[in-house]
Amino acid sequence: MNTLEAMQSRHAVRSFKNQKIDSDTIAALNNEIDRCNKESGLHIQLITEEPEAFNSFLAHYGKFSNCNNYFAIVGRKGNEEAAGYYGEQLVLKAQELGLNTCWVVLTYKKNKKRIQIDNGEKIIIVIALGYGTTQGIPHKSKDMAQLCTCKADMPAWFRNGMEAAMLAPTALNQQKFMIELTDDQAVSAKALSGMNTVLDLGIVKYHFEIGAGVNTFKWL
Ligand SMILES: Cc1cc2nc3c(=O)[nH]c(=O)nc-3n(C[C@H](O)[C@H](O)[C@H](O)COP(=O)(O)O)c2cc1C
Asked: Among the CATH numbers 3.40.50.2300, 2.60.120.820, 3.40.50.720, 3.40.109.10, which is that of 3-130?
């Protein structure tokens, strides 16, 4: 499965099987985390076999069941877009490895004993992780025309980028972003007002890059 196929098959999953993640898979995820942390300066950590985070009243409210593993996306104030951009790389790596995920900003309990939070850092968000009881279902998307503007005829690479961006998970499936093709090969992406839209933007930008081809255009 390549990254684009992982995007197409990924959907939020909140109910997991009682199946441990094996050590090879954990090692592969930790390699990817190391790469993301080096590139971004984030302090992402993989927490396994820790049922407490998703065992609280809030977690029931969010309808999570049997979730014992998660990525803790730890970083500094202002790291929200990077949290989305790099967190989604881990989501897609997990999908390629046969796991399922769900981004979670609200409905979990912070277990500060297991997560290392250095001075000036905070938990920005977590990503629930495990073998899903189902693969989830595709989200409803706004039309492409509501999510982008393009002055000239839309080039194929931009359409491919938009199709991938429309597959991106966003908080409450709000899709509050706008992508604009301003002139030859230059693209701007903006978060619109709403909760967690800057984090959403990081996720959306990663999807767009994979769909369009990272060397095809430049971000404004
Ligand atoms: C930044 C962010 C925060 C989210 N927070 C929660 C949450 O607190 N609880 C929850 O159940 N789902 C949460 N989600 C999952 C979204 O509801 C889900 O991704 C969205 O409905 C799109 O569905 P999909 O992931 O299946 O494409 C969050 C997603 C994102 C991107």
From this structure: 3.40.109.10
